[in-house]
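Hallway conversation turned thread

IA: we were arguing at lunch whether anyone had actually written out TLN2 protein end to end. Turns out nobody had. So, for the record, here is the sequence (244 residues) and right after it the structure tokens. Reply here if something looks off.
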Amino acid sequence: CCRENILKTAKALVEDTKLLVSGAASSQDKLAQAAQSSANTITQLAEVVKLGAASLGSDDPETQVVLINAIKDVAKALSDLIGATKGAASKPADDPSMYQLKGAAKVMVTNVTSLLKTVKAVEDEATRGTRALEATIEYIKQELTVFQSNEVPEKTSSPEESIRMTKGITMATAKAVAAGNSCRQEDVIATANLSRKAVADMLTACKQASYHQEVSEEVRERALRFGTECTLGYLELLEHVLLV
């Protein structure tokens, strides 16, 4: 029953997404209605996904984390979409904000699709690990896009913090290699969950450190380049584990 409810609510959220995009070109009232509707739907979706995660039982916490991460991705994408809709409201069709809106809508639909694939895979133990890894790869790609954007981070951190965060990548790499060797579903799921956090933390710390007041333009560019290269290298590793 959880799966049917998730499917039904996710479909409603896709409809809300369409209304949000079309709402940018219509009245403020319609836009407000679409935003309110999507907020209600995401709350419902989060509840049914949490029920689904609970129904797995506490002996499989890693798979529960995979499900919770999937709904978190959808919620974050919706928040970004609402922000993009606000920015594009009443703007002409060729305005850059309209392209941002279309990009945000695409990410939103991608994440809803990813959630549904994850829910389906959870029912089949043989594909759980593969699906978790695919979802993590997609998530890391999205995080890398945000990292590479010109958006300046809200706060900065020290270079030491950035160095500290690279330790998580080292641990996750060892775990990924072990999972590739064992090919056990639970090892692959644990790798997917750990990788997701390690790379996201590293990217955040790297960008915050690169904008520290004592950092020169040249050093910033190098730091951002190495952050990208590290992520691309890690994605390649995960792709190999997926192939294995």
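OS: looked through it. The CA atoms of residues 87 and 105 lie 13 Å apart.
IA: good, adding that to the notes. The radius of gyration is 19 Å.
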